[in-house]
Recover the amino acids of this structure.
């Protein structure tokens, strides 16, 4: 009955798992944050929980990967590597786990091989368990990650993504496991990745049993979601059928779409004479007690729709996409269309597009297609670039059947067969000139980046640069608790904010009065460690965070446009905004018209996607680099 | 009607003088140029006269200043320092207009303002001088005279513009070949800058201390001194920090220097307050440099250790009173240090920070602390004038007590908006040599590490900026 620790080598870990008389628990804090709090749980909260989580004796803590790497820099303003370093200091014995999207890494589209390998190498310095999946269950898409993880001496945990339907048989999945083993060898943990929380307990038990019958020495890690409220049932069935590790998280933060509570898993399985190995129940309770007070500050990021959603068995959206989908529906003003989208259109689209696995980035393609079909009226009349790539097999071959011809015709026109023949199939992506990227980043930062900054940059270039600039201006803000960092409506006059900085030094900031000048500039007075200081907040900066970005070069404007962040390419007045928020657009679609020197020039989108934000107003005078619209390419 | 006195200056020194005038129960008339319309000296004066759009040219316009005095009925003018303070034409214009000029006569200003003439007077009175030449003869002949001087006394030597001053028009020559190269340039520059191409030479005293003596004389010829000051800490020959009395001088040497200063003043028939400046060599020999015929910026340190209000005394003397105290009754007690807190960025070659608004101004106080300033929260520093914001002068019984008090004051001083010399001064007073009183005019050049400090961008201030934004916008737009 051994606790598994970070100090063990992979062979010892696997050996211990094989001999286990009982089961282990992974605390999937990352998935809880992603599924129930649109990824916003701050490092501050994870640090508060760190000591108790360390004492709790988990197999691993899933704390990075998925969409979290992107959101770390985009919304949480924390360095994803610093996060791992700081948590490692507090948790020397607990293995850290990531969720990697194979060739899509922590992003939404395939990355070049050399970027994949560099990224895995850098993260493997902190991450012990690599849970890797591909939404088409196309094993070659995961190969580079497997190799680099093995090279780094870390544990590979390849996934078979699970779904339901006539094609999703035990036979199919057992065959997939063999395909994985053929590539990796036997020194792995197999993850059954039930990202939607699909199927009944009985179904999951049968699947685990089928794999276990064929590969009795293969440790199985069951991953589920509690969207329908029944994941405890599936976990129980999985463990009884022979799964060795299961996923759950701290009850103080469990919600509807993420993992179920750890303590409930332990209590339920105890009655089946199954022991949670290495677990200190008291520490499990303590970690929840430690962070409970922080939960209210995350309410703004919790789901717009409250309650479990057993209809997930129909629409199959993964837990990790529930929050962002509902957020999009709410912001886009089509929350009322959700029953239609979720219960009618989405299942239909699933079947039409090959009944593959609804998980990133495939889930986004299904979701945006269904939304576009319902909101647009003309089904498949406005196919996104990503859907076209899917149809062309760029992400991998369809696992069961190809979508019907009429869909291809809708997407590509009458010549679709020729296009499919000429362009279809998985493409090798050319290696990136990493040294050139390093140079570009050096120029944009004005100093040599660290290796980890470069890796972060290679994932999401513009967001990474924005983050590095944020950190330079505002320091390491992870030290601020959610009650400060996520405060809505401002602070009370005279309110005292107490926190420790990155050196452990305590500070007290007292809120003083604010004074607004005629030009919109505001002086905010704060007593910083008993010294009065005034901070000038410029009127322009109030328009939005990114508005504070200094003047952009032509190259930067062009680069941003390719990422969907459309800026004014030259100075002029806005003559027309041609799109509406939530509108789907294609490459080349006009989004606005600028007028300068009496000439009207259309501004077009360089990417396909959904209009998420309109920053400019008709009549407004724009400087080069000012924001016009933001196109969401369907990511997240 | 009360007696009115016009203050022909601006900024902190105008306020200093206005206070003395008002304490004498007289009325103070301020003058100002347009960029100074928000200056505090206008607010505290009893009357203020706008003299033009400036900048600087109206403060320097003798006619306008005299006219302002005549129109307001002022009977006297205090010129402060800078601007018209050492302009003999201005003193003469006052005399001609029947207005009392608070300072020495135009004649004295004239002769002491001319370096060569001043040296001649002092040499005749037996005052020790840095070996030097008279005005060099024009052309190649002058160059030969210079080369001969170099041979006799050795290099380095200083080539000085006769009409220069305040650190301007001086160049250091290291060798005979450099002399040949610099000589014509020095002449043409002097012509351009001062409309006078005469130059002369002086031996360079290597790493001297700058010691000066405050003297004060009434019209009966009674001349006394108020002790020494050490102004060795300078940048590019401009004073930053002044100390009274000069530290580490033996009582005998100090006495000798002060006695010499009185002789020098008497040799020039000096009247009112003035300052005799000396260079002190490492072998304790000292040389006359010049007499400043005006109130000095650093007069505050002398006031702190003597208890004598120099400006009040200046006014009373000018109005015909006699000195009411003797040399024997002047007692020097304790130590005083003055620091000029300037709106400048020491890390950027003391680049002025004019044009910026003071967003927070919180000054220290308590025992032994004196502030002479003019800025306030919300004040935008005019770009047109010098960058002095406030003079911090502290007094203490012992040297170390004084330094400790200074450190406390600098730490508690909060000025945000412009960058200031405060963090640089904090570095400086924490230097062990300063703490021991060991410094000469090369102190800043030899201690470049004094410029290494972080300008208010501590981690907590960065975070505070984020908190200010979250507060002002009602949400964290970086987390939205």
């Amino acid at each position: 009955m051994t606790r598994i620790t970070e100090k063990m080598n992979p062979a010892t870990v696997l050996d211990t798992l094989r001999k286990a008389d009982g089961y282990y628990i992974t605390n999937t804090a990352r998935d809880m944050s992603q599924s129930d709090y649109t990824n916003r749980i701050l490092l501050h909260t994870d640090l508060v929980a760190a000591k108790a989580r360390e004492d709790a004796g988990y197999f691993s803590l899933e704390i990075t990967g998925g969409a979290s790497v992107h959101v770390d820099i985009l919304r949480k303003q924390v360095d994803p590597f610093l996060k791992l370093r700081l948590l490692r200091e507090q948790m020397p014995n607990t293995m850290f786990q990531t969720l990697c999207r194979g060739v899509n890494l922590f992003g939404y589209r395939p990355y070049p091989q050399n970027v994949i390998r560099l990224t895995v190498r850098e993260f493997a310095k902190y991450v012990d368990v690599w849970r890797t999946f591909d939404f088409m269950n196309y094993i070659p898409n995961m190969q580079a990650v497997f190799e680099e993880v093995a090279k780094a001496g870390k544990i590979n945990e390849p996934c078979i993504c699970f779904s339901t339907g006539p094609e999703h048989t035990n036979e199919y999945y057992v065959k997939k496991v063999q395909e994985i083993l053929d590539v990796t060898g036997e020194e792995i943990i197999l993850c059954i990745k039930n990202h939607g929380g699909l199927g009944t307990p009985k179904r999951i038990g049968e699947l685990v049993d089928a794999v276990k019958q064929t590969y009795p020495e293969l440790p199985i890690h069951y991953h589920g979601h509690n969207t329908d409220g029944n994941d405890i049932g599936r976990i129980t069935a999985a463990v009884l059928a022979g799964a060795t590790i299961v996923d759950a998280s701290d009850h103080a933060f469990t919600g509807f779409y993420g993992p179920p509570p750890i303590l409930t898993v332990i209590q339920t399985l105890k009655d089946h004479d199954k022991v949670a190995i290495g677990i200190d129940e008291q520490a499990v309770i303590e970690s929840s007690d430690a962070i409970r007070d922080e939960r209210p500050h995350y309410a703004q990021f919790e789901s717009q729709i409250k309650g479990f959603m057993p209809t997930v068995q129909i629409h199959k959206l993964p837990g990790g996409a529930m929050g962002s989908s509902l957020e999009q529906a709410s912001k886009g003003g089509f929350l009322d269309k959700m029953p239609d989208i979720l219960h009618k259109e989405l299942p239909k689209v699933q079947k039409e597009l090959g009944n593959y696995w609804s998980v990133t980035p495939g889930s986004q393609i299904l979701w945006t297609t269904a939304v576009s079909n319902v909101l647009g009226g003309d089904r498949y009349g406005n196919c996104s670039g990503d859907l076209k790539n899917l149809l062309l097999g760029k992400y991998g071959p369809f696992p069961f059947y190809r979508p019907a011809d009429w869909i291809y015709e809708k997407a590509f026109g009458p010549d679709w067969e020729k296009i499919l023949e000429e362009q279809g199939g998985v493409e090798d992506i050319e290696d990136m000139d990493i040294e050139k990227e390093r140079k570009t980043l050096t120029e944009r930062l004005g100093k040599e980046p660290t290796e980890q900054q470069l890796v972060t940059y290679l994932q999401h270039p513009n967001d990474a640069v924005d983050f590095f600039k944020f950190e330079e201006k505002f320091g390491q803000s992870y030290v601020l608790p959610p009650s400060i960092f996520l405060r809505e409506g401002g602070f009370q006059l005279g309110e005292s904010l107490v926190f420790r900085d990155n050196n452990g030094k305590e500070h007290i900031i007292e809120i003083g009065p604010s004074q607004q000048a005629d030009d919109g500039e505001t002086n905010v007075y704060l007593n910083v460690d008993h010294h009065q200081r005034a901070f000038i907040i410029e009127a322009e900066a109030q328009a939005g965070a990114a508005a504070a970005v200094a003047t952009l070069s032509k190259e930067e404007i062009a680069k941003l446009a390719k990422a969907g962040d459309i800026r004014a390419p030259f100075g002029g007045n806005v003559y027309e905004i041609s799109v509406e928020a939530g509108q789907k657009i294609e490459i080349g679609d006009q989004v606005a018209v600028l007028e300068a020197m009496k000439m009207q020039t259309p501004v077009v989108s360089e990417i396909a996607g959904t209009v998420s934000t309109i920053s400019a107003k008709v009549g407004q005078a724009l400087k080069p680099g000012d924001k016009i619209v933001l196109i969401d390419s369907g990511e997240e | 009607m009360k007696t009115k006195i016009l203050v022909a200056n601006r900024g902190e020194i105008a306020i200093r003088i206005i206070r003395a005038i008002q304490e004498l129960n007289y009325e103070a008339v301020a003058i100002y140029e347009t960029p100074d319309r928000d200056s505090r000296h206008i607010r505290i004066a009893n009357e203020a006269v706008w003299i033009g759009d400036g900048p600087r040219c109206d403060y320097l316009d003798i006619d306008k200043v005299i006219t302002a005095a005549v129109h307001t009925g002022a009977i006297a003018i205090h010129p402060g320092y800078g601007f018209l303070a050492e302009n003999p034409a201005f003193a003469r214009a006052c005399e001609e207009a029947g207005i009392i000029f608070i300072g020495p006569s135009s004649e004295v200003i004239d002769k002491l303002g001319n370096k060569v003439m001043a040296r001649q007077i002092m040499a005749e009175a037996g005052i020790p001088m840095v070996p030097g030449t008279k005005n060099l003869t024009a052309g190649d002949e002058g160059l030969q005279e210079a080369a001969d001087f170099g041979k006799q006394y050795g290099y380095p030597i200083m080539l000085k513009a006769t009409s220069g001053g305040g650190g301007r028009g001086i160049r250091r020559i290291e060798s005979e070949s450099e002399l040949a190269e610099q000589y014509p340039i020095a002449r043409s520059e002097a012509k351009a800058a001062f409309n006078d191409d005469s130059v002369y030479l002086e031996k360079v005293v290597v790493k001297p201390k700058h010691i000066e003596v405050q003297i004060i004389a009434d019209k009966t010829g009674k001349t006394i001194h108020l002790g020494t000051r050490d102004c060795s800490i300078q940048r590019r020959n401009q004073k930053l920090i002044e100390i009274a009395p000069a530290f580490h001088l033996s009582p005998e040497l100090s006495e000798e220097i002060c006695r010499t200063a009185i002789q020098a003043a008497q040799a020039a028939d000096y009247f009112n307050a003035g300052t005799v400046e000396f260079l002190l060599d490492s072998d304790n020999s000292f040389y006359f440099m010049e007499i400043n015929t005006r109130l000095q910026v650093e007069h505050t340190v002398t006031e702190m250790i003597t208890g004598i209000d120099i400006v009040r005394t200046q006014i009373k003397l000018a109005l015909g009173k006699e000195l009411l105290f003797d040399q024997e009754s002047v007692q020097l007690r304790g130590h005083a240090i003055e620091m000029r807190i300037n709106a400048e960025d020491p890390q950027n070659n003391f680049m002025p920070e004019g044009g910026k608004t003071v967003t927070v101004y919180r000054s220290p106080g308590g025992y032994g602390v004196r502030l002479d300033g003019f800025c306030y929260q919300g004040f935008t520093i005019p770009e047109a004038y010098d960058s002095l914001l406030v003079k911090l002068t502290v007094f203490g019984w012992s040297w170390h007590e004084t330094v400790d008090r200074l450190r406390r004051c600098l730490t508690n001083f909060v000025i945000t908006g412009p960058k200031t010399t405060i963090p640089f001064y904090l570095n400086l007073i924490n230097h062990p040599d300063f703490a021991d009183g060991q410094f000469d005019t090369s102190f800043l050049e030899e201690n470049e590490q004094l410029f290494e400090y972080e300008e208010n961008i501590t981690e907590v201030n960065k975070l505070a900026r984020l908190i200010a934004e979250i507060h002002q916008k009602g949400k964290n737009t970086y987390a939205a």
Confidence is low (pLDDT under 50) at residues 541-549 of chain A. The two ends of chain A are 40 Å apart (CA to CA). Chain A touches chain B through 48 residues (CB under 8 Å).
